[in-house]
Amino acid sequence: MSNKEVKAALKSARDAIRNKEYKEALKHCKAVLKQEKNNYNAWVFIGLAAAELEQPDQAKGAYKKAIELEPNQLLAWQGLANFYEKSSQPDVKGDLADVYEKLLQLYESGDKQKWCDVCNKLVELYRQEKKYLEVAETWQKLIQRKQEEGAEKAELHQLWKKMIQLLKDSTESQDNKTGQLLLSAFEHAVESADTVPGEDHQNLYKSFIQCLSKFPHEAARLEKACNDMMALYPTVIYPLEVLCLHFIQSGTLSEEALECFSRLLEMDESSGPGIIGSGIKFLQEKKYMEAVKSLTEGLQKTSQCPAAWHYLAEAQMKIHKHRDALQSCNQALDVLGTPEGPSLRWKNLILQVKAEALIKIGDADSAEEAIKALEQIVDASSDPVVLAIRGQAYLNKGLMDQASKISQDLLLSHPDLAESHALEGFIHYSQKDYEQAERSFLNAIERKAETAEYHLYLGLTYWFMSDETKKDKGKALTQFLKAAKFDIYLGSVFRYIGNYYRDVAADTSRARGCYKKAFELDETDEESGAAAVQLSMELGDMDTALSILNRVTGKASTVTGKWAWLCRGLYYLRTEQPFQAVADFQAAIRADPKDSNCWECLGEAYFSRGSYSTALKSFRKASELNPGLTYSICKAATVEQIQGKYAAAIATYQQILKDKEDYVPALKGLGECYLQLARSALGDYFDRK
């Protein structure tokens, strides 16, 4: 076949393809290849015809052969691209991307429009494959080319916005380089906007700031963007809120941060971040009650801020609301999820506060949970304060050996740390080794003189050490007073001061004041509440007693506040108000159905109002729960006596007198029953009975 015949055959192949006669085209091409096996056009035409005849392997092989022969010729690359685009096979996308990359090189100095079309196709392919770095780099090449061609500012602005659109959904999985390219796109888009200020520009700025807030290491860039937007849009609250949240989350409480909190509240007094900021300021100023109030209110509006939950937990710990603090820590951990980078620091801090709260709650289950929390802290074994907390958790759980081991290690490695000596003191105190405990707590106080807990435990050590140290004003009382001075929210210390004034100084009025203060600080402190009520009654101040009881019963549910229901019931019984007494004793029983004393009191109330049958049932229930309640057994017999059931009453009285032969109420009741039986016999003329 001559050169002229080869050209004629190729022309015939081209015509056959144009007429969709693909088999005919293949014949012509094969004839050419018999003569010229490296004929570029023949291989390209075979690729095209085979693709149309659904012979993918032959088509792909033909195109690749053509490319091998002429790697810088467009035709085969275009054909291969077209073949891959039509292919339904999922594994060709990587090959297609390589083809597009080659086409970009080939179009570089030629057809600008085709270069842009291929670039768009390549970007879309990378986006589908979630290869965001490649998306960003390829799109940036497109923008760079447009800039070199002298594109208008408006066109470039749209291209930067398109780049943002392509990348903004990928912030969760971006690598640092992709993130930087996205932020750069935002900066160019913001700078190239035509209408400034304007609604579109404002929304773009918001999106930029929102994106920046997802990059923890871009703090300076975020602050600049917020400040720039505030300068352009001084009445828009969004950048100021983001800036405040940034300061809260970073733990930065500088003058600038405090000024931002104030500005935000001036613009919107109901702003969550602003209220949280004021709560943090209160915490700094040691105004803990106000801090808890503000942080709680702010978190109702802005709940997805783990740092704010941590600050709330800290404030709640300062006022000894340990269960509330535990709840706040759990909320913070839920919001954090699986933290990385700076958020990991917050997780460690939150877990430490959680462990401290659980230790203060004090039971063995809480101690176990505290140990689990401490195990999650990164590098916990190298932090002596965390180790001291772990030692307390072991102590609460009753694992004395583990607690002692930590204590000994800390005293050797950190002898100047107050927590090392305090842990040793707690261990000696729990073992009632008061002399050793005294020395340990004094060592702890020497290193941290203003820690109320150390003074409290030193005071308790003196209280239980001996009668002499208990009564010595310079010992127990002095330490309790110091603890109260350093921590005005520590309710338990006021209870112990109350115990001193009641049991040692015999100063009922002062004791009552201390118990009242203790109960105001901690309304779960039943001992202080009951003591305040009891002493108020002794002082004849029934109004104060009743106001305390009313406050507790007003807040208590049907299964809590038993002591208050019981005390108020006794008050009503004493003041001859049996109907009210019955209601309160019933509430106390709902809180604890197995308390024999409550059933005895209920029986007494029913008896006082003349409800003898229900009184009898209550007294019998009390004696069932506690067979040693002689009073209830005797009162049940008294009710039977009133009901005229003398034989039953006599049997009960006799049973009591077998155990307590000089129990006067039983003797009196038995005598009265016999007398009533005698009178009845005389009335029936049975004289000799």
TrEMBL record:
Alphabetically sorted, this entry's keywords are: Coiled coil, Repeat, TPR repeat
TPR repeat ranges, renumbered to this chain: 40-73, 562-595, 596-629
Residues folding into a coiled coil are 3-39
SUPFAM superfamilies hit by this protein: HCP-like, TPR-like
Keyword Repeat present in the record's keywords: the answer is: yes
InterPro entries given in the database record: Ski3/TTC37, TPR-like_helical_dom_sf, TPR_rpt
Q: Name one GO cellular component term.
A: Ski complex
Q: One biological-process term from Gene Ontology?
A: RNA catabolic process
SMART domains from the entry? Answer: TPR (SM00028)
Q: What name does this protein carry?
A: TTC37 protein
